[in-house]
Amino acid sequence: MANNFFGITDIGRQRDNNEDTFIAQKSGDGNFIIACVIDGVGGYVGGEVAADIARECILEQLSYIAGDVVPLLVNTINIANQKIYDKKKTDKQLENMACVLTLAVIDIQNNQFYYAHVGDTRLYLLRDHTLIKISKDHSFVGFLEDSGRLTEEAAMDHPKRNEINKALGFNPEISKDPDFVETGHSPFLPGDTLLVCSDGLTDLVDKSLITAILTGSDSIEEKGKRLIDAANSKGGKDNVTVALVQNDKAPRQHSATRPATAVAKVTDEIVDPLAQPKLPDGPATIPVRQKSNRGSMIVLFILLALALAGFLWQFWLNYQLKQNPVKTYVTHVKVKNAQEIKLQDTINKLKGKTLILSAADYPEPIVLTDSLHIDGDSLYIKAKGNILFKRDSLYHGPALTLAATCKFIVLDSVAFEGFKITITTHNDALVLKHVVFNNCEAPVQTSYSFPANKQVSGRLFGGMFKIDSLPGSKNQESGIKKK
User: Fold this and answer.
1) Same domain for 352 and 234?
2) pTM for this prediction
3) Which residue, among 432, 433, 402, 436, has the nearest Cα to 417 in the 3D structure?
4) Spatial distance between the Cα atoms of 201 and 451, rounded to a whole number of angstroms
5) What is the CATH number of the domain that holds 72?
6) Cα-based distances in Å from 203 to 56, 132, 168, 211
């Protein structure tokens, strides 16, 4: 799979700086290819800063990809949006910065790709020499083009073609709008090519020329460079960026098989289709052997007997079902969300003994569909800001499960809501600091290990935990402040 992805960006012919950036590389675990084009919104100070923030956030969040990919992409874009918005608040010169992006994650091994998109960068799929536009432009002119009200040529020349209605960095609460981020996934078959590009390409180069370049015999690097050159040759009015990914597996081809029947001999004789067929040489009449009806009667009798037996069998089965109705059970399949996948992976790969949970990374409650497992001997989990763990409506297990090997686990300033059993632990491994339990039936369930065949004496002291009361803190009453 070497050389099956490539990215390139160019300042163009009329701009003084490049507000575009891109990603074209494998994920940290090596199982996926990330192709992304990010365009700093033109005309605003700091567009390139916003693009760089988004790029770094994507690489950080997608270093490990597992589970349901689309929610992970949406969560990554939400985090990038929040980081851009937070940066704007700290620097007055950047208060108008924003960016748009198209992010694709490709699973070559399983022939699939997933994408998330905001703005007027674009995603195309080339299959069988046909270029298909996958993403939709989040702009008025883009809507007119996608709905067929404007031709491609008219949209490219429209005076408002660069006015967008969605971007990252303007609204800190895009996660509350389920339609803000456009998402999808599709098969990525052997021979397919994905193109992610900025509007610096599609505002100047039409679909037919892009298709001609992508279907050529050049290498993927040369195709990327030819797309840049095509935009610059038409004026290069904007920064131009492309990212390409090819599924370079050999397409499956099925060889044709010859029919088993003999091939008729070709002659020069003209055949009349209305003529009676020729009989082979021989007697003028062909004797016909009369068959006895006895065999037919036997077959008919056997068929009737089988039909009667089948009817009686079905009648007996229906009777048994009425007497002993079959019970059906519905099994709910757990599908972990991106937040808990990310958090469990962080716990598993943590090299130190301290884990900081920041509200900037988890602005919304962390909804758990399964228990988070802690296996190390010691770990300090500290929350900065409001970190709330909530139970998914279909989940009835604990929020945290501490292994028997744990010796010293500290939870500091986190909150839990709605769990029947919140934390399961062993012996005296758990330490709580300013932890809140809202509507939790059993906050902590502890198992103690004792040696076999030994007498045990002692007492479990309920006073090992105390109720904290911090002056002026409303969170001690409600668990966490809802935004």
Assistant:
1) no
2) 0.55
3) 436
4) 72
5) 3.60.40.10
6) 27, 17, 21, 15
